[in-house]
Amino acid sequence: GLSDGDVVRVRTNRGQIELPVFRQPGQEGRTISVAVGYGRTQVGRAGQGVGVNAYPLTFTSGRFRRYYLEDVALEKTGRHESLASTQTHFSMEGRPIVLETTLEELHNGAEANSGSESMPTLWAERPQGEHSWGLAIDVNACTGCSACVIACQAENNVPVVGRSEVARNRIMHWIRIDRYYSGSENEPTIVHQPMMCQHCQNAPCETVCPVLATTTSSEGLNQQVYNRCIGTRYCANNCPYKVRRFNWFQYAQNPEFDFTMGSDLARMVLNPDVAVRDRGVMEKCSLCVQRIQLAKNIALQEKRELAEGDIQTACQQACPTQAIVFGDLKDPKSQVSQLRRQQRHYQVLEELGTRPNVGYLKRVRNQMETTKGRQ
Fold it and tell me: What integer best gives the mean pLDDT of the chain?
């Protein structure tokens, strides 16, 4: 058998390449899939020399480019490469992280929005502002393309840490795409779930911070105050969603991390509205607070109220399927409020009483009834 990282030689009638193995549930046993787009030689430090160029194995047939080959053979080379992956565990272990329903149950109204607003709490209600910002994410629409991850990275000056740091689980992305498998190994079901700071109203990270570096604003935003943070990392340990990131190094102007912030030219792409964080502080999703403030200032200059659609987070703006919706939870007419009233809506780990301002819509499976039962 083969293990992840084992290097194999792929022999075809159009040539051969050597690649490391990365096993995936659901892959037909007599087939292999090869990612194209790698093996570049002039793409900068982040992508240079990564992978192998598989395009020479493709061919043209008529007017089309063919990306499938038959009569393919694999040979072990005896070599092994360590693979750096942003996700190493793909099971929910029975926890209600991604909830699913069927089309039949949805039509019959069997799935109802339980809601965590009525759960008892030991917290005193804090003063509320004019707005309460939140997200609604439809996992039924999410394709796992990761456009939101790249958009967030560009908008919020999130550092690129490189392969060695990813292998140490020190990735800095403020939003990640969790992929979960369920069912059998040969015929698994797959679901993608965008996961960022949930902006909890009863935030576990707040209770353990000794210097009040993380607080909740009157508008429902869980805020990180960088110049207060002393880097205890208690907040990351107490976050049930595992969405807080620690700056292990000074990534900007550091030759060891010369990916996006190392040169004067590269730093010109940084967003001037977002602080570049220092070594030793925590950071996380801010719901693009700089965009919220900009929209408020524009509305104030124009002497009007904020309107639906004035504010879009970077992840929402980049999503090709409109799976992410941002808005004011206090406005009952806003799209995000309407989505949260749907019977598909739920909050991840709501039984913990965190009262997150980020909610999800259940995945709907269109399963058919047969004479042998539900398939």
Answer: 90
Q: Computed from CA positions of residues 52, 56, 61, 63, in that sequence, does the dihedral angle turn out positive or negative?
A: positive
Residue 372 predicted with pLDDT over 90: no
Q: Give the length of the chain.
A: 375
pLDDT surpasses 90 at 105: no
Backbone angles phi, psi at 238, to 5 degrees: -95, 0
Report the 10 Å Cβ neighbour count for 184. Answer: 10
State the DSSP code for 356: B
**Amino acid identity of 63?**
R
Query: Encoding tokens for residue 87?
Result: 């996700």
Quick one: pLDDT at residue 116? 54
b (16+ CB within 10 A) / e for 345-370: bbbbbbebbbbbbbbbbbbbbeeeee
* 3-state secondary structure labels for all residues of 31-50: CCCCCCCCCCCCCCCCCCCC
Burial of 72 from C-beta contacts in 10 A (0-12 / 13-18 / 19+): middle
Task: Tell me how far apart the alpha carbons of residues 97 and 179 are, in angstroms, rounded to a whole number.
Answer: 11
Phi, psi dihedrals of residue 155, rounded to the nearest 5°:
-70, -40
Do 358 and 195 contact (CB within 8 A), yes or no? Answer: no
State the Cα–Cα distance between residues 50 and 37, nearest whole angstrom: 10
> CA nearest 267: which of 157, 175, 192, 147?
157
The residues near 70 (Cβ < 8 Å, ≥ 6 apart) are: none
Question: Strand, helix or coil at 76?
Answer: strand
73 contacts 11 by C-beta, under 8 angstroms: yes
358 touches 336 (CB < 8 A):
no
The arrangement of secondary structure in 100-365, i.e. its CATH architecture, is 2-Layer Sandwich (3.30)
The full set of domain ranges for the chain reads 6-80, 100-365
